[in-house]
């Protein structure tokens, strides 16, 4: 298997942006799901005004940039972001099959200089978990070979709920045959909070598989189930100060684990009664508060 290709050359503008990066603990990038349908210049302008250093862009079915059109769209996305002083830092894909579509997209991703992406993970559904695990392990090994070929690192996001990736421990089961240089875990401590896996343990277990980090914070909201008339609860996502995630402890655990890459802020504010993330203006206000909070914490830990 041939090694990764040399990184694509960056222009003077990108080099200047690199020199101007802050000396904070971590750069902040936006998982731009809540505003992905804005015209590209408006999206870039908004992210810059909200205080981000770059973007963690959806590139998957049902997003403006997809697996199919990504090779044509990504150079334009990179150019527009750079024109606004932002980096196209990461991509969120649903890639799981090492097929021709993945090959074509990974080649384009390498060409625009993105080196880390999220890849897909199978949901359990009604399938036998051990059989699903075996299938996932085979697919991830094949995907790892394709990622290595193109010099792009991929990661599975740990995600609470009926998923093989319910926590870091289960992710590591899926990845045990993979080279961590090319396939790792996109650590989401908010989801680990729901799954009951402590931040210090998860960060310690990951070791070389710690690929990238998402930041968002959950709570449980209680309501009466109208079908049963009984009290029920649902996981919701709230501003960082208001949730269950111990954000200062998370930053310390990441630092102790040697993590140095960007944090991807997920603006998925919602409750059982209202999907705030569907209101761009309201979400922007909460995003600005979370960015300020993270920068305040990082400044105090520098």
Protein model, in words:
The protein has 10 helices and 10 strands. By secondary structure, it is of the alpha/beta class. The chain has a single domain, classed as TIM Barrel, CATH 3.20.20.150. Strand 5 (153-157), helix 6 (168-174) and strand 6 (183-187) form a beta-alpha-beta unit. It starts with 11 loop residues before the first helix and ends with a helix.
Contiguous uncertain segments of 5+ residues: 1-22
Number of strands: 10
- How many DSSP helices? 10
Determine Rg (CA atoms, Å).
19 Å
Number of domain units: 1
- The percentage helix is 25-40%
CATH architecture: Alpha-Beta Barrel
Percentage of residues in strands: 15-25%
- Averaged pLDDT: 90
Shape: globular
Give, in order, the helices and strands.
HEHEHEHEHEHEHHEEEHEH
Instruction: Provide the structure class.
Output: alpha/beta
Strand order of the largest sheet: 1-2-3-4-5-6-7-10
Named CATH topology = TIM Barrel
The CATH top-level class label: Alpha Beta
Q: For the record, what is the CATH homologous superfamily label?
A: Divalent-metal-dependent TIM barrel enzymes
Topology:
Layout: H1 12-19, E1 28-31, H2 40-49, E2 54-58, H3 70-83, E3 87-92, H4 100-111, E4 116-119, H5 129-150, E5 153-157, H6 168-174, E6 183-187, H7 189-195, H8 199-206, E7 210-215, E8 217-225, E9 230-238, H9 247-256, E10 263-266, H10 280-301
Parallel strand pairs: 1-2, 1-10, 2-3, 3-4, 4-5, 5-6, 6-7, 7-10
Antiparallel strand pairs: 8-9
List keywords for this structure.
single chain, 302 residues, alpha/beta, TIM Barrel, 8-stranded parallel barrel, 10 strands, globular, disordered N terminus
């Amino acid at each position: 298997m041939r090694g990764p290709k040399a990184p694509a050359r960056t222009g003077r503008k990108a080099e200047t942006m690199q020199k101007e990066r802050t000396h904070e603990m971590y750069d902040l990038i936006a998982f731009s799901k809540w505003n992905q349908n804005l015209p590209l210049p408006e999206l870039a302008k908004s992210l810059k005004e909200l205080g981000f250093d770059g973007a963690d862009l959806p590139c998957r079915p049902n997003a403006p940039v997809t697996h199919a059109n990504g090779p044509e769209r990504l150079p334009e996305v990179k150019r527009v972001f750079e024109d606004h002083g932002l980096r196209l830092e990461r991509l969120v894909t649903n890639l799981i099959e090492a097929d021709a579509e993945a090959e074509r997209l990974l080649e384009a991703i390498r060409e625009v200089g993105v080196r880390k992406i999220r890849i897909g993970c199978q949901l359990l559904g009604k399938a036998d978990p051990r059989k699903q695990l075996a299938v996932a392990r085979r697919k991830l090994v094949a995907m790892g070979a394709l990622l290595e070929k193109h010099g792009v690192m991929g990661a599975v996001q740990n995600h609470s709920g009926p998923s093989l990736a319910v926590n870091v421990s289960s992710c590591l089961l899926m990845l045990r045959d993979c080279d961590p240089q090319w396939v790792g875990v996109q650590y989401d401590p908010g989801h680990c909070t729901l799954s009951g896996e402590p931040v210090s343990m998860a960060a310690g277990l990951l070791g070389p598989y710690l690929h990238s980090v998402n930041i968002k914070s959950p709570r449980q909201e209680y309501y009466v189930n109208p079908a049963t008339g009984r009290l029920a609860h649902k996981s919701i996502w709230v501003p960082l100060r208001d949730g269950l995630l111990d954000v200062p402890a998370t930053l310390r655990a990441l630092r102790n684990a040697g993590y140095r890459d960007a944090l991807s802020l997920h603006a998925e504010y919602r409750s059982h009664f209202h999907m705030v993330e569907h209101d761009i203006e309201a979400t922007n206000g909460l995003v600005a508060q979370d960015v300020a909070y993270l920068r305040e914490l990082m400044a105090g830990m520098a």
